Structure formats: structure tokens, C-alpha cells
TrEMBL record, chain B:
It comes from the Bacteria. Its cofactor is pyridoxal 5'-phosphate. Pfam families: Aminotran_5. Residues 3-371 form the Aminotransferase class V domain. PANTHER family: CYSTEINE DESULFURASE, CYSTEINE DESULFURYLASE FAMILY MEMBER. This is Cysteine desulfurase family protein. Transmembrane segments: none annotated. It comes from Microbacterium schleiferi. Keywords: Iron, Iron-sulfur, Metal-binding, Pyridoxal phosphate, Transferase. Belongs to the class-V pyridoxal-phosphate-dependent aminotransferase family. NifS/IscS subfamily. It catalyses: (sulfur carrier)-H + L-cysteine = (sulfur carrier)-SH + L-alanine. InterPro entries: Aminotrans_V_dom, Cysteine_dSase, PyrdxlP-dep_Trfase, PyrdxlP-dep_Trfase_major, PyrdxlP-dep_Trfase_small.
Amino acid sequence: MRVLAAMSGGVDSAVAAARAVDAGHEVVGVHLALSRAGGTLRTGSRGCCTIEDAMDARRAADRLGIPFYVWDFSERFRDEVIDDFIAEYRAGRTPNPCMRCNEKIKFAALLERAIELGFDAVCTGHYATLVETPGGRELHRASDAAKDQSYVLGVLDADQLAHCLFPLGSTPSKAVVRAEAEARGLTVAHKPDSHDICFIPDGDTKGWLAERVGVAEGPIVDRSGTQVGTHDGAHAYTVGQRRGLALGRPAPDGKPRFVLEIRPVTNTVVVGPKEALATAEIAGSRVSWAGRSPSVASFACDVQIRAHADPVPARAELVDGEVVVTPDLPLDGVATGQTAVLYEGTRVIGQFTIDRTRSAVPVEV
Amino acid sequence: MSIYLDHAASTPLRPEAREAWLEATEVVGNASSIHANGQSARRVLEDARERLAAAVGCDPIEIVITSGGTEAVNLALKGLWQTRRSGTSDIVLPDGEHHASIDPVEWIARRDGVGIRSVPLTTSGAIDAAAFAAALPGAALATALVANNEVGTVNPVADLAQAAAAERVPLHLDAIAAFGHVPVSFAQLRGDARPGAGLLAMSVSAHKVGGPIGVGALVVARSARLDPLLHGGGQQRGLRSGTQDVAGAAAFAVAAELAVAELAEESERLSVMRDRLIAGVLATVAGAELLGDPIDRLPGNAHILFPDASGESLLFLLDMAGVSVSTGSACQAGVPEPSHVVTAMGRTEREAREVLRFTLGRSTTDADIDAALRVLPDAVERARAASGPRPDGRS
């Protein structure tokens, strides 16, 4: 196959590209320039858009003896990922920009261009496995549960999965990848993993958002609507958060209070006891299926609501274009905007963006 | 198959220049040393300076050898500004100049709080001579390209130099893309301008004419007052301290001499091939358009707009097919920026991303043109498909 290896400058994508070469594919390395204001040098574990990262990717491609190009997706990235990130926070939701990037950039804009330019597949360093079955290609969890990234790939549909290559999926651990990189003479073998949001180079998400969303003081209320404090910008709060609320007086019951909800229209933060975080139902209408669509309108599954959350057994129902998921045990700290990925064992069934939640604990009036 | 059509980025080293370089490296010694070894090196250096001076049309003492074109331009602009900064005002910087000029001028403007007077380009990419003249009165200095390195349009430099002389404004000409490809004579362009005014400095580069990368020169008129960038041993009139690169100068001189000697014949050969390339592209690719002046252009330059095809995709597809071309614009970490020259010609930013620059040179043959014409239509078709929306409407 003609394979386009997306190379971030990190160790995973470099080893993935190397394995694609070993598998006999005709591989071309491409580094995505996602930011026009990228720093020149990498700082700590942040970012993937610096000149140094592009250089690392180029040197890895040199080492593998494959052609290498830098493609500019900065405009698409700004429009589809960064602006979306800001808009979601403005709307009081908690977005996952990496999923958005996979959905709109890596496996959309890049994949489309790759296909048109004559490639058969896009190869990345994601930890997930593809399984061929008579019913079509399936997306499964990686062998190494600790590194599994099937959650952030949950947005891929059948068409996209048909043009993917994830050579690292069956690797037992990241250590193996680093050792392999070292053995292959790749200079990125010991480069630290990137963790933070790549377009917020100093890692100060709160400050970055404050500049763009604006800071306005607003009320902190309890579930009955009584004001218990003030905040300096609702976007800085996340559902489930306990620290940093700076509430003057304790709750009547003396228990710590947690952020339960953000109401952007009134710039209000709702707080309450930990039990009130328990979510009995989540639902959303922005749905995609990884491979085949479910054949029945109601099915058992596991639901995962964060990249590193544990999957929880649940029942999913399709009602009027909406997926409604009822977990067997209540979920903790669910925020709208988050993505729920549904699994059947290790197989990704599909995903949806959480539009609404129902608490397990009714409001006491 | 490898077809090299990016000679404006760098053209292959001439064998004669390589020979001269190797020969010069056999000479032991520092050209500034007083002993016999130093004198031998100095002889080779000054021979080279004389030959280079003859090729660019100036006196040998006016040649300052630099590490390349960018250093030459920086020396000219910062050096001239430094001696004029008190009591004078703006710098004249036409649109569409090379970044080697834009960036130093913007740096000076930021640092010293002076204004930049821009001069519009015509739709064919030439500096508007009347607008240039109108921008000059009272300016501290002015700069201009002899020929645009991207779109290939040759500027009316005689008019620009004359206007600068008349307004007594110091002028620097960036001849890096033009020298060796169209006739350029410093003395002729300077004419009878008063001391310290008119054309005072002109930049040239070795690797654009078959010399080595890493060597350039600034022609500095005797009457020019400029401060050096590099301070030290006071070599080259004190304008460029540092041990002189004898071998680089020798190789540059040979390449420059040959380029000028072959200019008439070679520009005829190149422009015939270039016109065949242009005609072939326009005939086979729907919507393709030649940018820049069709007549007053560098003989080896074909700069073509391919509507709805991104230069980035085209570059990739042609490279995969073994054809090396360029988008012509500045790169940051390998990312082609939309061309500021193309937008200065009144085109949209989108169009400024849809251009390719083909530049022919000494090693270019008819077979290269044939090969490029063979692969282009398919590449454009594919690039257009890759730029467009998906058939299923998903974006």
C-alpha cells in the first residue's frame, strides 16, 4: 500500500512509521503544521507544533529513508479545533480537543487529502487495534490497557477506519516502543510524551481561556438556587472539581462541595455534595458508529466518558436519533461536551457527545 | 528520474568554480598575513575581486565579499541606516521584496521607530517607478529588487536608480536573483549620481550563478558611508571584518565571469525553453495563468497560477513524480507561506497559495521540459481534487 505516516516528531509516530516501512508499504512521512505561532523549541512535555518537533520528525524520516513533507493545516486546525474549543467552553461544556483533531483534521482533512493524492491509508502512532471480520473492520482497544487510545479514536466511522493503520496497537507496552526506537537509532527514543493541549504551549489552560472567553464575575449557587459565593469566570471550572471554589462559609451539612454544573447563559456555577455528582443517565445526538451501526435499538455495552476513565457496564437505547445510556452504577462528574464511547468487550461500538445528563440524586426542595 | 527545475533556489556548482575553489584551498596562509604565504593567498583573493568587479561592473575596491546574499543585504540596509539615522526619516521598501530586505527594514523600523514607505507593485509584479520616485523625497534610504526572485519580473531599475540620484536618496539594489541572468552593471546604474546619493550598494550571491553556497558580495560605492555589521580586524575597508574566504571568492569570481560571458546565449536558450514550458502548461492545464511580466522577466523563470490546486499538494505530487519545483515563497519549518509577492500583485491569499515557480538553469534540457509537461496535467487534476470538498459533502 501507499501509506502516509503522520509524524508528530514523537517516538510513537516514528516507530509506527518504521513498522509500516518494515511491513513493505511505500511510506511517505508528513508532519502537520497545526500552529502558525508555534514556538521554536520544545519546552518540557508540551506541544507538537514547534520547529524542533518538525525537525525531530524529519530526522526520523531520514533515518527510515522515507520522503518527508510538512503540510500546513493551521487554518483548518484553528477553525475546527481551536475555535471549537473556545466555543464549547463559552457554552459551558468541556470539550476534548484531541478527539476533535482526530475527527476533523487527522482522519478527515489529512486523510481526504492523502486519498486524493494517491495514498491508500494514513498511519499514526495511536495505541489501538484494527480487527478484520466478515462484518467489516472493527476498532478495538490496544493490547496495553495503560496506553490504550481507542477512546480518542472513537469518532472514526467505517469509511475512515478502512483507511487507517495503527501499527502500535498490539505492542505490550510503551517501554517496548522506546526500546525499539533506540534500536532503530531514532533520536526521539527518549523524548518525553506530550500530555497537554498542544495549542496552549505554557499549559495554562485557565489563563489561555480567560484571554479568549473573557472573565466575568458570577454567582456560585447550590442546587436550590441559593447563592453561596462568587466566581471570577465560569469557564475556569470543571464538573467534579472541588478545589479552588473559595466558598466563604461551609455547607449546612458541613460536607465539601463540588462543581455540579456550569450554566454559561447566566454565568453561574452550581455546587453541591459529592453524591449529587452521581449521574444516572447521559444522552446525546451527535453520534457516530465505528464500523457497522447497531442492529437493535437497545443493547448492553460498556460506557467510557474520559480518555482514562474505567468503562462502566450500561444499557444503550436509540431513541429518535438520540443515544440514551443508563449505566448500571452511577457515573461520577459527567460534563456536557464530553464524549461517551461505547464498547462491546474490547470493540468500539461508537460514540456520542454528551448533550444532557440526569443526576442520580434528585434536587431536595 | 530527477528533473531539477528550482535553479532560482540554488543552481548546480559549475565545474570550473569547483576547480577554482579546490585550487585556492591549496594556497597556504591568511590573505592578511605579511609573509610570502599570506601574499600568495592575497594574490588569489585580489585576482578574484578584480574578476568579480569586472563581472558586476564596479571597481575592485568596491567589492565586499560576504557569507552570502542575506548578509550582503543586511550590511547594505543596516549599514546605510546606521550612518543616516540621526535627523532622517523613513525607509522606502517596495511591496514584494525578498525577506532579506523586508525583515531588516522592519527590524530597524521597530527598533528606531521610523516609518516604512511602501511602493505598490503593478499587476505584473514590477515596482511602479512613478510611485517609487514619489516615495523618495526626504527618505533616509531606499531598497529595490533588480528582478523579483519569485515571479521573475525585471524591474525598471535604471529609472529607480535615476530617481534616487535625483532625490539624493541612498539606494540599495538586491541583484541576487538578477545578476548573471540579465545584464546588470553597477557603474552604469549608478551613473553620475552625487557622492553619497543614488545607487550606493548592490547585493549579489554566488550560488545563483553556479558558485558555492555561502559566498556573496556587496558592491559598496566609494562614496557610500555605512557602518559594518561585523567589527574586528578591519578587513575589506573595515566594512566586513573577518579572515577573507579566498577559495570562496575565487570560485565566485569564476562562476560570475562565466555567467556574464554566457549571458546572451544562455538567456536565449533558457527563454526559448521557458516559453515552451509556459505554452505547454497553458495549453494542457485548464485555467492555468502565467504570472509576472511575459516579456520583462528572468529568462529561466516561469511562475504559474493553478487555480483551485494548492501549491503544497502540487509540490508534493511533482516531487513524487521526480520533478523539483518551488512555490517560490518563504518557508518556515518547511511550510510554504502564501506568497506576499502574489498578493502584492493584487491577487487573493488563496491564489497566493496556488502558484508554482519553475526555474530553469544551465543544466536544464528540452527533455526536462518534456518530462515536466508530461506529469503536470495529472498532478494539477489530483491537487484540485485534494483541495476541493469531499464528494459526500463531509468537510
